[in-house]
Amino acid sequence: MSLTEVQFAGTTVEEAPAVAIQGRSPWQLAWRRLRSDRMAVASAVVILLLCVVALIAPLIASAVGHPPATQYPYGTTAQGLPRPPSGQFLLGTDNLGRDLLVRIAYGARVSLLVGLSSTAIAVIAGVAVGLFAGFYGGVIDGMLARFIDVVLAFPYLILALALVTVVGASLPIVIAVIAFFSWAALARIVRGQTLSIKEKEYIEAARAIGASPLRIMFIDILPNVIAPVLVVATLLVPTAIVFESTLSYLGLGIQPPTATWGNIISDSQQFYQVAWWFLIFPCAVLLIATLAFNLLGDGVRDAIDPGTERVFAARRRRRALPVEGPPLVEPPRPAIEEE
Amino acid sequence: MNAVSASAGGGAFPDSGTAGGDVLLSLDNVVKYYPVRVGVVIKREVAAVKAVDGVDLEIRRGETLGLVGETGCGKSTLARCIAGLHPVTSGRITFDGDDITNLSRRKMRPFRRDIQMIFQDPYGSLNPRRRVGSIIGDPFSVHNIASGEERKRRVQELMELVGLNPEHYNRFPAEFSGGQRQRIGVARALALRPKLIICDEPVSALDVSIQAQILNLLEDLQSDFGLTYVFIAHDLSVVRHVSDRVAVMYLGRIAELGHRADVYDSARHPYTNALLSAAPAADPDEAAARQRIILVGDVPSPLAPPSGCRFHPRCPKAEEICGKTDPVLEVKPGDPETHRTACHFPVGRGEDLARAADALRADAEPTLG
User: Fold this and answer.
1) Would an 8 Å CB–CB cutoff place A302 in contact with chain B?
2) Is pLDDT above 70 for B195?
3) Which pTM was predicted?
4) Domain architecture of chain B: domains with CATH
5) Do A224 and B129 touch (CB under 8 A)?
6) In principle, which of A290, B28, B35, B74 could form an S-S bond with B252, CB 3.0–4.6 Å?
7) Among A28-37, B64-73, B130-139, B196-205, which stretch is predicted with the lowest mean pLDDT?
8) How far apart are CA A195 and CA A184, in angstroms?
9) What are φ and ψ of residue B304, in 5° steps?
10) Could you tell me what percent of chain B has a pLDDT over 90?
């Protein structure tokens, strides 16, 4: 029985053949939209490249034969200034004669590690706090909401400075500080969403079945708040990367001789007039990384919630989005055609 | 089974046979107030929304009790109090001999298997981010009854029972029509084979042809599984079709309670009479012949309900005593034991309430101008 025949047989909806429509979940639809967004795909590719570079940094070092912390006497000029890019040092050297390319590659490791792990911690903490505050309400919400407000009001740099002075700068401290200042924004969003979702009838239905608060929070409410969380998380990563670079730049982050983009930029301050490569290359990489994550975040947001027009939307309009499922009815054939 | 109930529900209500065995659920002076609090840091209670203001009700095993009333009369609140979704301010709810008033969530859990609810909004009562199989199978997971393949099998069984294609197990609610979603809600309520199902306006959001399907489904399920229904609606014809007994609510109280035939054919409470006269009649000749009882004014706010009988400001038969004393829900002379009315001056047989109502409106007109 072909699909066309079934359509005109006047059967009820319940009796329609099960394979007629390929049901697409909201996530599958969002994924398709994301895939067709060129900017987002390009950004994703850049990020992927960055991750690859970060992963194979030791390989890069051995390929060019320059470990990141080794200072080469022939890496600097007679006056002790950095050498420009050449066959030997592909991106030039820094003021201590270290290979800039290798240091930037190792810097990528730090940046990505800090960016991704601090975001992960912030997401877990923010979502948990937001869900609890929004769901329980009352006194618990009162206290948690005030706490969130306090954290958001903190001048992060001053606290970072204080912490580092007391505890000392290291990778775990930097990750902890960045996570501490990132979770609050997420918690506030999740709390707001939870407060409104809590009043919906399907939550009442879940309570009528006897579901425990934990189950309601994580199985019923969480899937509905995950969309904005995803968007904010994707935009938190570049913030974290820049935050880390700022801390390193100020000398509050990872300490030398570990290579981080912030450290390199900081060191390059004195030499940029004579060694442009020393400043430009780490800045460029930082810019590209941040831009890529931001554009990907935009793409994710548009994929999840297509609404406002974007600069490149014209290009998307001209390309038809993929059709969901096989067509329900065969295209009509002209009546004059003889079989 | 027909013995005078020894239930804790207060009062002896001899069973006059027909659908309805022993008492399954009894409400004893249930009161639900929502406090209105003002203040910045410390909040004081200044008023209370008296949503349910003293309801005595008994629901018998196997019957369908229809609960009708205007919007704002408290029937949905009462439903949620029975289901344990809202704590009651005072009063007692007894289910199958056990006191379930304001139990903690842990203690209430075993009763959740026996008392279930079907919600009004087919679009709001299903989580849009969960698959239908997961929604229907939720009760099994929550109560650790079945999991994995067994759960899937039982969910598909339920889907077939309510008239859904079991192949659609993995679809999202957005892919179903309103009637189908309501069937999903029915399947979810039925999962644990409850004894009592509270239907909170289950067909109000559907069009008429689908309403009929869902009502028939509910009827079939009742006879197959021996269910007891509390059927809340504001559509009188629907309630007439499904109910064995009917309770009419007004501003948080029960105005009239009785078997369907008694309430519809010989209503004693003026409010019930007005309601019935306002229900549209399908037959145009009958509609033309009918005298509509038009009431004065609007339903008062539950924040400040009138003293005495809640209906007295609008009642064409009101006297001084109506504003002073609360009428008791009791059997009026000439009525069967099961037909109770809360009124000081119940409407007699053949009494023309329409004329009295018109006269009352004429009096009120000058002030309304």
Assistant:
1) no
2) yes
3) 0.79
4) 23-114+194-368 (3.40.50.300), 124-190 (no CATH)
5) yes
6) B74
7) A28-37
8) 16
9) -140, 75
10) 49
